[in-house]
Write a structure and sequence with these properties.
Blueprint: H1 2-17, H2 21-37, H3 41-58, H4 61-78, H5 82-99, H6 102-118, H7 122-138, H8 142-159, H9 162-179, H10 182-198, H11 202-218
């Protein structure tokens, strides 16, 4: 990571000196990803925010939205700062709505649902997931729809409404198979195994979790 950061900073200096703003913004975004992987989240946020400001200057709303999602991801996944995560994902959603980027709206709504779950507001989380599902259905975005179904399955599992969890899991699994999405199939099998485990059915739980593991190994998923 140190070597990657060193090269990126040299590139950033060249882009800045020559006022190549689009490459400069892209370079900061890449630097943010490297710093995040290196577990230096403060520096990652600095880099993503630098890219965000440059894209704002250039009027690149789509890229601004993507940087906001990256910023929200760090606050949500890495720092457990859910208010900041919610603010970033909300801003991203509004930007994607303005530019008509429906697939990104779907993703932002799912992320808002995850934040709501972390805050213990399962009702609001499900509202975000349902809104995401409706958007994906209207725009015929099957990958986003599969994710929306799975997130609802997981939410119902958390809340102990198992019939609903099974129903949404089946819908997600069916779409994942139709799309040939091995990674999504891995997630749906994992959820199915966990539901059976919670219902004190270790045999079925182990069966589905082993299938999930096999698929994960096939797709090199970590």
């Amino acid at each position: 990571y140190d070597l990657a950061v060193d090269h990126l900073k040299k590139a950033l200096k060249i882009y800045e000196e020559n006022e190549i703003l689009d490459r400069l913004a892209e370079g900061y975004s890449t630097l943010g990803n490297v710093e995040e992987n290196a577990l230096d989240y403060d520096k990652a946020l600095e880099a993503f925010n630098a890219s965000l400001m440059l894209n704002d200057e250039m009027g690149e709303d789509l890229q601004r939205g993507r940087e906001l999602r990256r910023i929200g991801r760090i606050y949500y996944l890495r720092l457990n700062r859910f208010k900041e995560a919610r603010d970033a994902f909300s801003q991203a959603y509004e930007l994607f709505k303005e530019v008509g980027q429906v697939d990104q709206q779907v993703e932002s709504l799912l992320e808002l649902g995850l934040v709501a779950e972390k805050e213990g507001d399962f009702k609001q989380a499900l509202e975000f997931y349902v809104e995401s599902q409706k958007l994906a259905e209207t725009a015929h975005l099957k990958p986003g729809l599969a994710k929306a179904f799975l997130y609802q399955a997981n939410s119902h599992w958390f809340q102990g409404t198992y019939q609903q969890a099974f129903r949404f899991q089946r819908q997600s699994s069916s779409l994942a198979k139709e799309l040939g999405d091995t990674l999504q199939q891995t997630f749906t099998l994992n959820t199915l195994g966990l539901i059976h485990w919670t219902l004190n059915d270790p045999g079925r739980a182990l069966e589905h979790l082993e299938k999930s593991l096999e698929l994960a190994q096939t797709s090199n998923s970590q």
